[in-house]
Design brief:
globular, 361 residues, two-stranded antiparallel sheet
Length: 361
């Protein structure tokens, strides 16, 4: 909105030309979303607390969670989404289809997460929607998003899969790109959801991955930088950096309230939306494999759950004391803060590796 407004004033006031720069608008979107979260944070927390909108704690989890976390409000993802949408709608180019694709994924997955949180609160139990039903709805929502980006974007790269570390290794997926993108969107959404189990654990890795893809979006949408780095040039995808900037700002603002001891949890409202959004950015920038590297912590958390379930069904034995894996280390006696900070360190390392793939080809 403001981007369009200022663009129309360029002929009158040349100063407003500064708002055409992606770097400026990315910074403004980050700042805007963070301020919005700061403003709505305390009122939402007070409202949720007064109305007992809190997420029931798993009774099979670490015992101290029942004591420390019971009664903490949930659905903090609402403030994250308010921040993200404020930043994008104010500073993004709303004629760009990539922006609407990202807004759709964040909004639709966020609504699904909100309904899941509502069911948990209503039943007063940590299980909300059935996992099969939730995945089914995610597939439907993701499929609609894929059709949006397929019919409304002008990119010829949508069916190509690029491999990091290799200059010319490209695979045309054909129509297999649809199930592949479904896997990425649904998988990344659920991976972040599984990681969101400790105060601040998922928030900082999301910030790190979003920061990486803010940069990747920018260089992928710049013909000079993309040729220099030998990565695919995708016209218009630089606008995704505005969305990534909004995610960073909103998550920074949320972390203020979510830092240990958390005043509010993001719930499925936030984790499903953020995970789906990261998957969507990975798709439109054609850096799906780099997404798996930078978001390696989320992948590890998801694999730990899959391995635990498969092992128990096949052998009757569990690999970990508890899954996802962050609870395993808690069961081993690690303090929550130790688990969180060490996992943050892992995320920083993976983010640097992911960015290194842009040059090491």
């Amino acid at each position: 909105m403001l981007f369009s407004f200022f663009s129309n004033l360029v002929d009158i006031f040349s100063f407003f030309n500064v708002f055409k720069y992606l770097t400026v608008r990315t910074g403004l979107s980050m700042f805007t979303s963070m301020i919005v979260v700061f403003i709505v944070g305390n009122p939402l927390i007070n409202y949720f607390s007064a109305n007992q909108i809190h997420n029931p704690i798993r009774d099979d989890g670490p015992s101290d969670h029942i004591v420390k976390k019971i009664g903490t409000p949930t659905m903090g993802g609402l403030m994250i989404l308010l921040g993200v949408f404020s930043g994008v709608l104010l500073w993004g180019d709303l004629s760009n289809p990539y922006n609407w694709f990202l807004i759709y994924i964040a909004g639709s997955f966020g609504l699904l997460g909100a309904y899941d949180d509502y069911k948990k609160i209503k039943k007063n139990h940590s299980s909300g929607l059935s996992s099969k039903f939730k995945i089914f709805i995610q597939i439907i929502l993701a499929l609609i998003g894929i059709l949006i980006i397929y019919f409304f974007s002008d990119s010829n790269e949508i069916k190509n899969l690029y491999f990091p570390f290799f200059k010319n290794l490209v695979i045309n997926l054909g129509w297999f790109f649809i199930p592949f993108y479904l896997f990425i969107l649904v998988g990344s959404s659920n991976a972040v959801n599984l990681t969101d189990g400790l105060d601040g654990l998922a928030t900082v890795p999301v910030i790190l991955v979003a920061a990486c893809f803010a940069f990747i979006s920018y260089v992928s949408g710049n013909i000079v930088f993309s040729e220099y780095l030998q990565i695919p040039y995708i016209e218009g995808v630089g606008e995704a950096s505005i969305f990534c900037g909004s995610m960073i700002g909103a998550c920074l603002g949320f972390l203020w309230f979510n830092a240990p001891p958390a005043k509010i949890f993001m719930g499925d409202t936030g984790s499903l939306a953020l995970g789906g959004s990261l998957g969507a950015v990975g798709i439109i920038t054609k850096h799906e494999i780099v997404l798996a590297i930078t978001g390696g912590l989320f992948v590890l958390e998801a694999i730990s759950v899959i391995a635990q379930v498969v092992s128990f069904k096949l052998t009757g034995k569990r690999i970990f004391k508890m899954a996802p894996i962050h609870h395993h280390f808690e069961k081993k006696g690690w303090p929550e803060s130790t688990v969180v900070i060490r996992f943050w360190i892992i995320s920083i390392i993976l983010a640097m590796i992911g960015l290194a793939t842009l040059k090491l080809r």
